[in-house]
Write a structure and sequence with these properties.
It contains 13 helices and 18 strands. The protein is of the alpha/beta class. Helix 8 packs parallel to helix 13.
Length: about 375
């Protein structure tokens, strides 16, 4: 249930579209960098290289053409830096993270030892980091929505990496004013899975590992595109699917321009909202879901239960769905650690190719006969 609440909070964040403009935010401005990082899918950040420093800009997901945060990364103390951003010496020597989605990026770059504090520590799946938390080497900073500032300031990391939740976040602003720079990692706002995964290259800028990150991401993207092309060879019909589950009267479905809906399309499924223009999630009533999805072949994302009997115990009306009657109900529970930490919320962000392979196996199993599911499982 804890992981479901976390997931739904993330959904609410996706639906958020209002707020006050943060003081000091400015629009794009013209400069002449020596070079810029070529981005292939991500739209939420920009990297420009100047003599003596690197400028990294994070764009505001809630306001077009606006910069949410600007960082000037430097290696030598005597460099002259602009004053309109946060100066950070690289490579970082310590870091706190506020979201488990950042763990996989650090793992890929072999920099987990930099982590000195994490929010929602019980949700960390990575065995290496989990052990460090259990042994007291990494501090538990409490809930992301109410970070334990005393602990954070005690360990004094060089920076805190966090997901932006709105145009202005009073908690994160207070942390920044206390002397811990906040690095806004907004990968969750990207509209496709490869865009989310490309934030590996954003993280690498702060670790001075751009070349490694570029190589790793290119391989991931190539694998994803190869799998996507494979779907065109499917002999089986595209299954009709529904997603998510009911929580306190609301059923959240991915909008048609959400990265999850893009995954459904790329894996060869038919989805009711696939032509919708919503980038976040769509809140549906139970009655609406029954009306539009009762004949869906597959139900994916029913993560509120571990078995069909447990699912029906939550709400006997689930028996109305064809997918339940045919036992075609699946959850993102392929990798659960003791205590309930779920790797779907962690490494799947950095490995969209593996996630796509899981879905192709589910929708068109003849295409990947040797693949074993990593992140999804069937409720029995």
């Amino acid at each position: 249930m804890k992981h479901l609440v976390f997931c739904l909070l993330a959904v609410v964040m996706l639906l958020s579209s209002c707020g006050q403009r943060r003081a000091g935010q400015v629009a794009f401005y013209d400069e002449n960098p020596d070079s810029v990082m070529t981005l292939y899918y991500a739209r939420g950040f920009e990297v420009s290289y100047f003599s003596g420093y690197t400028r990294v800009q994070v764009f505001n997901p809630w306001a077009d053409k606006e910069v949410m945060a600007r960082y000037y990364l430097y290696r030598e103390d005597n460099v002259s830096l602009p004053k309109d951003g946060q100066a950070i010496r690289i490579p970082l020597n310590s870091l706190a993270i506020a979201s488990c989605t950042h763990v996989a990026f650090l793992h890929l770059l072999d920099e987990l030892e930099l982590v000195k504090g994490v929010c929602n520590a019980s949700m960390v799946y990575n065995p290496r980091l989990k052990q460090a938390i259990e042994e007291g080497e990494v501090a538990d900073l409490g809930d992301f929505f109410q970070i334990n500032r005393e602990k954070l300031l005690h360990i004094r990391p060089q920076a805190l990496m966090a997901s932006g939740r709105n145009q202005y976040d009073e908690q994160l602003d207070a942390i920044s004013r206390a002397g811990v720079p906040v690095i806004y990692n907004n990968e969750w706002m990207e509209q496709n899975l490869l865009g989310r995964a490309e934030w590996l290259r954003f993280v690498a800028c702060f670790l001075d590992k751009e070349s490694l990150a570029d190589s790793l991401f290119r391989q991931t993207a190539a694998n994803y595109l190869r799998l996507k092309e494979l779907v065109a060879q499917a002999q089986s019909p595209n299954p009709v699917i529904m997603s998510g589950d009911n929580f306190r009267g609301s059923w959240y479905m991915p909008g048609g321009r959400n990265h999850q809906a893009q995954l459904f399309r790329d894996a060869g499924a038919s989805y009711f909202f696939e032509n919708d223009s919503t980038t976040g999630s769509i809140a549906c009533s139970f009655e609406q879901v029954v009306r539009d999805f009762n004949q869906a072949d597959i139900w994916i994302g029913a993560s509120n239960a571990r078995s069909l009997s447990a699912l029906l115990a939550l709400d006997e009306r689930y028996a109305w769905f064809k997918s339940v009657q045919n036992k075609r109900v699946y959850a993102y529970q392929g990798r659960l650690a003791a205590g309930g930490a779920n790797d779907y919320w962690e490494s799947a962000v950095a490995h969209p190719d593996s996630l796509l392979a899981d879905f192709i196996k589910l929708f068109h199993p003849e295409l990947l006969p040797g693949h074993e599911w990593i992140y999804i499982n069937q409720l029995q």
